[in-house]
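Hello, quick one for you while I still have it in my head. I'm working through a protein record and want to make sense of it properly. Would you mind checking whether the tokens look sensible for this chain? I owe you a coffee for this, so here goes:
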Amino acid sequence: MIISIGGSVSTGSTPWINIVSAYEDVRVLEGELRIGESGLYNIASQIYAQETPTKDEFLEVKKSLIGFGQKIPTASRLAFSLLLRLPGAPPSIIHKVNQYRSGKRSYDKRLPGFSLYSKNMLKELELFLNEADSLETATRNLKIQKLMDTYFSSLEKCVSNDKKVVIDQLITPRLLFDERYGCVISDILSDVKIIVVRRDPRDQFIDLLLKKKKRYHTMQPSEAASCFVNEYLPRYERMSAMLENCDPNKIADVWFEDIFFDFEAALSKLESFTGLRKRPTAFNCFDFSDAFLKVKMHESEAFAKETNFIKDRMRRHLYRY
């Protein structure tokens, strides 16, 4: 079984992964595996929705997915990281850097065989696309499910043959709650359990500022708060609506704050959802005291105006302490 644990940027998926990693029947893949960013899920979802991707769409996915196996030279990686944090960097340069970085992710190093299994899957997908229009709906759906199951099973075996495999960001919330295709991703991936990690958006916003992510640190705080709401409010509205209607056997959600305010109930929920057994006596892979400093950050006066703005517009997405 593959367990995908992920959240939006700075929502706390890593702490939950560290906690789950303490179970004997779990193996955690180091780092993230964002294969959905290649467009693979969109193509699979199109097929499932009785649409046929174009040849150009398939070739773009093929190029991206195979490129993910390659790595960026260390010197280039450091230079890009500094550039993206530099105030006043031209948007055109930032876009080009992000495009290049997103295309090379060293997945072959973490998953020996990633490119090989991806190439095999893409060959099968191309053959399938050539006949997809002539197939009945039920046959199309079963074939794309089987193809994806075979591919994911191959990736799973790269990590472990006898344990549950936990992967960070395998299905990111941004894709899972996509307005057009997100609703069918969980149907296509029949042997993947998806855990969405949520966080109080006020603390998420402050964390993004402090970590200099999404370039909020280059804006006035009020402008950054407005940009945050404009991006995340529609996404979280879709997320809440879909969580209410999705199959609870395939998708579950927990909060980062649950670790400190509702740990027993949240952990029991995950154990039941994923079949985790033999709860460990200690969770030594996670520093509870250090992580607690990231809770209720919005109570500080530093960004009171901005967090009150977020509170006013995103009330139904706040954590209920």
Notes: The first strand starts at residue 2 and ends at 7. The mean pLDDT is 91. Residues 57 and 162 are 36 Å apart (CA to CA).
